[in-house]
């Protein structure tokens, strides 16, 4: 019993082997890109612990959970105030904002008192 495409058999085997090798390389490349992604994001964002995030990404890929945590860690910017250092620019900004709000409240209170006195005279 002969098959219709029996003469194309060796060529189809080579084509399927090439396809499987290309597919395997594409999967391997996707795995490498996913493992390196948290470290790349952390470096791009100038994260203080970019190397640690990168290591967590590589070791976390087989487990999955640690890789997700590495992605979250790569997107979080560590705060200086948590490490005991003070951010004088941030504090100065807050002090300025509070001063402006206090001035605004005083003006509103004075306007309210002025309106009350005008209503009494009318």
TrEMBL record:
Residues that span the membrane, as ranges: 12-37, 49-76
Pfam families: DUF3302
Origin superkingdom: Bacteria
Biological classification of the source: Bacteria, Pseudomonadati, Planctomycetota, Planctomycetia, Pirellulales
Keywords: Coiled coil, Membrane, Transmembrane, Transmembrane helix
Name of the protein this chain belongs to: DUF3302 domain-containing protein
Key word Coiled coil present: yes
Residue stretches in coiled coil: 91-118
InterPro entries to which the protein is assigned, alphabetical: UCP028770 (IPR011223)
Organism from which the protein derives: Roseiconus lacunae
Keyword Membrane: yes
